[in-house]
Structure prediction request, 154 residues.
Amino acid sequence: MSCLFCFSSDKLSPEERKGKYGDAWGQYADNDTQFKVKLCGAPCAEPGCWCVSMICFPCAQYKLRYKALNHIEPGSGWSNYKCCQGMFGGCCCIQPGNIGEDSCPQCCMCAEGCCFPGMAVSATQGMIMGQYGLGLDEDDVRLIRCNNCLQCLA
Prediction:
């Protein structure tokens, strides 16, 4: 986590907002309202939730997505679930909306949490940010830059 602090927390530049993932996060870059608890402050703010999430990350993502779906549309259950909520598009044979989400959304969410954990977190975060017009905080920007750096190195 400390490697995040090697990256700038300045707002994302127009160049960083391009591309598949830039489009996903760039829309939030200019919003000033932010989450009450910053990304790096979450372990201290909710230590119990954080510990359980570290023990069984896919289970935590399953529960958080369900809570977010039903927060945005109360009583909807899993009816509005889509793999990564369609936030990142698809790749190869995995196309959000076409992989069985209608018939078995819980199984698809379990697979998403196990196979694409980072994208699962980002999709749930993006849902809430979109609902409330929230922006990226300094920790989000650093994480995006760290991720971009790692992708270049890969």
